[in-house]
Amino acid sequence: MLSTTATRKSFIDSAVSMLRSYGFDGIELHFKYPGSGRSPAKDKHRFASLTEEMTAAFEKEARETGNKKLLLAAAVAARKETIDAAYEVGKLSKHLDYINVMAYNFHDGFSDTVTGHNSPLFAGDHSEESLHSSCKFAMLYWIQKGAPAYKLIMGFANYGHTFKLSTRNTSVGAPVSGPAHPGRYTFEAGFLSYYEICNFIKDGATVKWLDDQKVPYAYKGFTWVGYDNKKSFSFKARFVKKRKFGGVSIWAMDLDDFRGTFCNEGPYPLTRELKRLLEGNDWMQVKKSASGRLRDSGSKS
Question: What's the predicted TM-score (pTM) here?
Fold first, then answer.
């Protein structure tokens, strides 16, 4: 589809027709990842061209019909090496209405040999941690590359990545032999939804808080999971508001405790809490302590 102006136009025309037929507000492009993996290097430029051409087509359609212009967004990578390889950030920033940064999947049981958190706010103090593997670094790197903060949407995760510990060490950076067994409901090795994590904790898992990264993890036996909860969402919501980003996105609604039957917190506990935190100012009242103050200064990025 990206390869020529004609094939891109075919996609754009069909997208406009479908969006208007069903009353959608716009479209999000989700391409993992232009110019990376099996995608040829020239796709980096072609992807930028696609956003430019789509914006022009959306503006033209709005002028001709009197409709409100369709929105154009893209879900983009959070890892530095992929950002560098995949995106002409200046051009994307000009033509996209929103840039949804997938600030999660920094560590998983398939690509890592030691435990690491799925979506740490800060890189933390662990020598095994990459300084580039954090929400803070990803969001600020997009700004450094030329994206305006008000267009950046920070991704929040309603799930965690799991590891199979290979020793009795349960800390961050502990050796692992791969992903832990699939969850009872999601059936994917190395992955647990938030409601499955609630069950894991109910079944006796030990919960720990990473104060330098502002996220929790849990372990039981040889299973280790780094995930998010209401507390970590509160620190991330403050970060989003302080930096004046455009907002947040969630992956994914069905991974929250959507019926409220597992976590004893009502339906959609993480999603509702995040909405509350973004709407109000009571996130400032999160309890402070000597080792866990609300801050993002002084943490590695």
Answer: 0.91
